[in-house]
Amino acid sequence: MASPAPAPAGVPAPPRRRASEAASLVDRLAYADTVRGAREAVVEHLGDIEGLMPSIYLEEGGRLRCQAVRGYWQILDGMPPSAGVIGKTFRTGEPTYIPEVSASSDYLEAVPGVHAEMCVPLRSGGRVVGSLNVESQRPLPTEVLEEMKACARLLGERLMALGGVPALSGPRRLARHAADLAALIDEAEIERVAVDAARDVGGMDSAMIATDRATGVLAVGHAAGPFAETFRTLETGALEEMASWVSAGTSCYTMGNPVGAGFMAHDPLRQAGAGAVVVLPLSGRWRSFGILVLADRSLVAPRTKDVELLELLAAQTTSCMQTASALVELSDRASRDPLTGLGHHATFHSELAAARAALPGEDGPAVLALDIDGFKRVNDTRGHAAGDQMLREVAGALCRALRPQDRLFRIGGDEFAALVGVRDAARAVEVGQRLNAAARREAGTTVSVGIAVPRPGESDTALLARADRALYAVKRAGGDAERLA
User: Fold this and answer.
1) For residue range 302-355, what is the model confidence (pLDDT) as tens digits?
2) Fewest Cβ atoms nearer than 10 Å: which of 110, 132, 138, 217?
3) First vs last Cα of the chain: how many Å apart?
4) Is residue 361 very low, low, confident or very high in pLDDT (cuts 50, 70, 90)?
5) How many domains does the chain have?
6) Contacting residues for 476 by C-beta, under 8 A, at least 6 apart
7) Using CA atoms, how far apart are residues 42 and 38, in angstroms rounded to an integer?
8) Does residue 129 sit in the same domain as residue 269?
9) Average of pLDDT values for 146-169?
């Protein structure tokens, strides 16, 4: 062993452990018949060395959890692998020695007065499963590090003999997945996380979610596992039949009988080799989103307690889907003019910037600024209800005259703007003429149109200003025309 580091005057260094004492850990571990007992044996062994405060952290669900400790009244727990000396050691798989913690950016203070810290990785079954850590209010001789390495090796061997680090229970895994789901607002990401969670919580190798959010009819969204492709081939009729099994809010699952009777919708999965199937509803308070389906190659009957956990997962998934759906709806409403359903002023500027960023230079969209001719007279003589009706009719006529990839916005009272993907000025003018003709034909009014085709290096503000100047030139000339800026 290396020679101990010299201690400051008046501060004795921790005593070196005698070989006979070190051997006692082997005896302690031999008598430990549980993983918890093995952990406790190691911290007791290191805690016998004067001045050492040992702790053992094992990875659970992506975080390091304190499993055994001596010498502390309080601890830091739930440590991500990115945090502290313990996280660094787990992350790198290499021992860490900090002779003076005040000089280290990795050190996390749990109690005051700590002088030095040492940490070694815990390995079991060929992988790093945690960290063995000691802190001391005195300098630590390097021989303590060698002692810790020996302790970590013996503990890893004993963990393997006891069956390895225990897996998280089903309820704890469910809780972790529920926390992950609660942080999501993207519908596709919710499906992905929920499918992975279902496979983990249910102990089945395949899962999928079918919803009606994209097309209005049930269709398979995210699917994973050996039966993923089979899931994706399920027709709408089979999915709707599965949904009917759980429409009353029940779950439905097979019973491990290979010759037992079943519904027709089971046939594609049976033919693909599924021995067990679970179907759960994704039903919220106001609507049903679809179904969560699991399948496994083993011919087993799912346990009731596992199905109950899956039901809770389905409920959490549905809640997240409801929230995501509501946020999408609110966002859509916030981005639209309530009278015409078109994007409003802020949406126009946002989409103009995005479109020009995607097509830089002269390939960006042309901007058409439009104004209804004589609109004030309609409001003054026929009333605002008639004016609103005209706005809706003009908006509909202009939208129908544009291509699907072009966009129309209402940016003011009777002012509209269009983003049109054209490459030359002549084509842009043709679009303006087509819009004017559509307003005249379908809404019984004319529009004035100012057109600007982007120039190299021109800002969005300058492009829109040119379209506006062209529009007002048309208005001053009497309207019912198009002008290129």
Assistant:
1) 899 999 999 999 999 999 999 988 888 787 788 888 899 898 888 999 999 888
2) 217
3) 85
4) low
5) 3
6) none
7) 7
8) no
9) 91
How many Cα atoms within 13 Å fall on the side-chain side of residue 270?
13
pLDDT category, 214, cuts 50, 70, 90? low
Whether 100 and 78 map to the same domain: the answer is: yes
DSSP structure string for 397-434: HHHHHS-TTSEEEE-SSSEEEEEE--SSHHHHHHHHHH
What's the CA gap between 395 and 376, in Å, rounded? 17
List of E strands, 173-275: 206-211, 219-224, 252-253
Token pair recorded at residue 338: 């309530």
Beta bridge pairs of residue 116? 136
The set of residues, in sequence order, having a beta carbon less than 8 Å from that of 169 and lying 6+ positions away, is none
**How long, in residues, is the chain?**
485
| Pair (296, 389) in one structural domain | no
d(CA 368, CA 398): 12
Q: Give the pLDDT band (50/70/90) at residue 22.
A: very low
Q: Are residues 317 and 185 in the same domain?
A: yes
Beta bridge pairs of residue 117: 98, 135
In whole angstroms, what is the distance from residue 243 CA to residue 305 CA?
A: 22
How far apart, in whole angstroms, are the C-alpha atoms of residue 149 and residue 130?
13
* β-bridge pairing 447-452 and 481-484: parallel
**Longest alpha-carbon distance in the chain:** 106
What is the rounded distance in angstroms from the CA atom of residue 375 to the CA atom of residue 213?
A: 40
Convert the pLDDT of each residue in 225-238 to its tens digit: 999 999 999 999 99
Domain range for 417 is 345-484
H or E element: which one contains 358?
Answer: helix 345-358
Q: What are the phi and psi torsion angles at 311 (to 5°)? A: -60, -40
Mean pLDDT of the 131-146 span: 93
Residue 265: pLDDT band (50, 70, 90) is: confident
Residue with tokens 């054209």: 422
* Domain CATH for 124: 3.30.450.40
Instruction: Kindly report, residue by residue over 165-190, the tens digit of the pLDDT.
Output: 888 889 989 999 999 999 998 999 99
Distances (CA, A) of 260 to 78, 254, 270, 299: 47, 9, 12, 12
CA–CA dist 304, 255 (Å, integer)? 11
Whether the Cβ atoms of residue 442 and residue 396 lie closer than 8 Å to each other: yes
Q: Same domain for 288 and 411?
A: no
Q: Burial of 264 by CB count in 10 Å (0-12 exposed, 13-18 middle, 19+ buried)?
A: exposed
Kindly report the CA angle at 225 between 219 and 227, in degrees rounded to 5? 60
- The three-state secondary structure class of 190 is helix
Instruction: Return the H-helix or E-strand segment holding 352.
Output: helix 345-358
Within a domain: 338: no
